[in-house]
Automatic annotation (TrEMBL):
Carboxylesterase type B domain ranges (all copies): 24-185, 187-394
SUPFAM superfamilies tied to this protein: alpha/beta-Hydrolases
Position of the signal peptide: 1-22
Organism (species): Fusarium culmorum
Protein name: Carboxylesterase type B domain-containing protein
InterPro entries with a match to the protein in the record: AB_hydrolase_fold (IPR029058), CarbesteraseB (IPR002018), Carboxylesterase_B_CS (IPR019819), Type-B_Carboxylest/Lipase (IPR050309)
Lineage: Eukaryota, Fungi, Dikarya, Ascomycota, Pezizomycotina
Keywords: Signal
Length: 400
């Protein structure tokens, strides 16, 4: 069983109580002390703070345990390594990946008042539970956009076989989700190694749970980008190769299903003899099926149980014409380009053609974090973001 010691909550409380303007503040989180960094932009960060014991040795494949107490002041000025994922290689262990990876990162206003009770935005990096557990994003942009009135927290959690092995009596399934719960210290609803129905942490399939209303009902924003399939579906040179991909990815899909997809995603005015045409059609259809359609299905189910509490978006902002809008492209606008782990895009910098996208997006997101509604503190000239209803299916389109 996981421990119920309130490490995470005491950490946030400690930060709120001890925030000062001095460089490299030291915070006491009850089990250890960490030395952070004043970044010189009114934001202080504490990076790589341990929230659970190293999940190695006897703790491998086990639920997260409390960290060992220490009286030493530990350095919290650099990100730690991400958790080992599906594409792990021996050459990466100890350099960019590690089994010892259960750390959190905190960004907060340097001059926050004592007992400010600022809202806390916890960002859990996605990746299909197989990889990408690397929340190396900088919360500075969001904090500044909020008027210095919020805290940003990111966390690592175990993925792939290390997080979702479900074999043998001594192995508890879904420990990757338990890692998330450990960091949040609250009960949460809930490819190859993924969550399984264990009757405890995950009590039913996701579709069934959402359709029946068996989930924690909190305000939600769900969305997708235009070209979600880029990076997930392969390049193909013929329709037969595309058909083979569908059959391998979805064994229960028959030839009639595949033919219907091909028809729906074929430009009837174009000649598809160019191999790029086959690839585009496959990536577009796969992206819609895996991300866009599933997201809309969940949004519809949630909006049924939570009227006026669910919002949907479609992000269609290209970095440059013809560059497409791939998976997670919206992170450049939400976090501010250069603060997301995917690098800097010049078009989103001040004076760039997409600079206003960041202003508008951060206005919506910080408003949602502070008030559970993207419209309360939105950018003054931004449109009202209508809530999603299954009957109307209204989505906010981000487009330049």
């Amino acid at each position: 069983m996981t421990s119920t010691s309130p490490f995470f909550l005491s950490l946030i409380l400690a930060l709120l109580l001890t925030l000062v303007t001095a460089v490299d503040p030291v915070v006491d989180v009850s089990y250890s002390r960490y030395k952070g960094k004043d970044n010189g932009n009114r934001v202080t960060s504490w990076l790589g703070m341990r929230y659970a014991a190293p999940p190695i040795g006897d703790l491998r494949f086990m639920p997260p345990q409390d960290p060992t107490r220490s009286h030493q002041v530990k350095d919290a000025r650099k990100f730690k390594l991400k958790c080992v994922g599906l594409q792990a290689r021996a050459s990466l262990i100890g350099k960019s990946q590690s089994e010892d990876c259960l750390f959190i990162n905190v960004f907060a206003p340097t001059d926050a008042a004592r007992m400010a009770r600022l809202p806390v935005y916890v960002f859990i990096q996605g990746g299909g539970f197989n990889g990408n557990s690397k929340p190396h994003v900088d919360g500075t942009g969001l904090i500044q956009a909020s008027g210095m009135k919020m805290i940003v927290v990111t966390l690592n959690y175990r993925v792939s076989v290390f997080g979702f092995l479900s074999y043998g009596d001594k192995v508890q399934p879904n420990i990757g989700l338990l890692d998330q719960r450990k960091a949040l210290h609250t009960k949460t609803p809930i490819s190859m190694w993924m969550p399984v129905i264990d009757g405890d942490m995950v009590r039913s399939g996701l579709w069934d749970a959402f359709n029946k209303g068996n989930f924690i009902r909190v305000p939600t924003i769900i969305g997708a980008t235009t070209n979600e399939g880029i990076g997930f579906a392969p390049s193909v040179s013929s329709q037969s190769e595309a058909d083979g991909f569908w059959q391998a990815e979805y064994p229960k899909m028959n030839s009639t299903h595949i033919a219907s997809i091909t028809t729906l995603y074929t430009d009837q005015t174009a000649d598809c003899n160019d191999t790029r045409c086959f690839t585009k059609r496959l990536k577009d259809s796969y992206g819609d099926m895996r991300f866009m359609c599933s997201g809309l299905s969940f949004t519809s189910a949630m909006s049924f149980w939570m009227p006026d509490k669910t919002w949907s978006y479609w992000y269609n902002v290209e970095d440059a014409p013809g560059k497409s809008v791939p998976h997670c492209a919206e992170l450049h606008a939400i976090w501010g380009t250069g603060r997301a782990s995917s690098g800097t895009l010049s078009s989103f910098l001040d004076g760039g053609i997409n600079a206003n996208t960041t202003v508008v997006a951060q206005g919506y997101w910080t408003s949602f974090i502070k008030s559970y509604n993207p419209n309360t503190y939105k950018y003054a000239n931004a449109a009202i973001w209508q809530a999603y209803y299954k009957s109307q299916r209204q989505r906010m389109v981000f487009e330049m």
